[in-house]
Amino acid sequence: MTLALTVAVLTAGGMYLLLQREMLRVILGFVLLGHAANLIIISAGGADRRGMPFGTPDDPGSVADPLPQAFVLTAIVIAFSITIVMLVLSATGSQTDDTTDDDPEPDFTEIERRVDAERLAGAAVSGQPTHEGHQEAHA
């Protein structure tokens, strides 16, 4: 029960951090999710009801399966290397890849006004009808 609660807390915290916009929080969320996955794999091996994975296997039912522990060891190494790569990418990334919303919302009415003015100016030069169907007169 304690293992299940620990996995739940790690998964919830990891997902919360993974959904944030700052890169460091995303990396920490990835690390927490990796630890939760490792605990799930260890619990799948039946570590609570079996003995040590190595030793004299007089009773094969009492010896723990070493395969989940080998998987977790491999997963720890892979997660560590991915974490290092993500930390390096976040440290060496350019300042323009900021994911936070510091910029205010763009003023779409001003953009629409500019597009309409450019469209009218282009129609006046070419003599083509505008989007309202009116023929612009040449000056």
Quick summary:
The protein is an all-alpha fold and 139 residues long. The chain is built from four helices and no strands.
Task: Summarize the structure in words.
The protein has 139 residues and is mainly α. Helix content is 61%, strand content 0%. The protein is built from four helices and no strands. The longest helix has 27 residues, at 66-92. The N and C termini lie far apart (83 Å). 4% of the residues are buried. The mean pLDDT is 79.
Features:
139 residues, mainly alpha, 4 helices, 0% strand
First-last Cα distance: 83 Å
Low-confidence stretches: none
The count of β-strands is 0
**What class, by secondary structure content?**
mainly alpha
Taking the sheet with the most strands, its summary is: none
Shape: rod-shaped
| Range of helix content | 55-70%
> How big is the Rg?
30 Å
The topology string of helices and strands comes to: HHHH
Total count of helical runs of at least 4 residues: 4
**Strand proportion:** under 5%
The chain-level mean pLDDT equals: 79
Write the SSE topology.
Elements: H1 2-18, H2 23-44, H3 66-92, H4 108-126
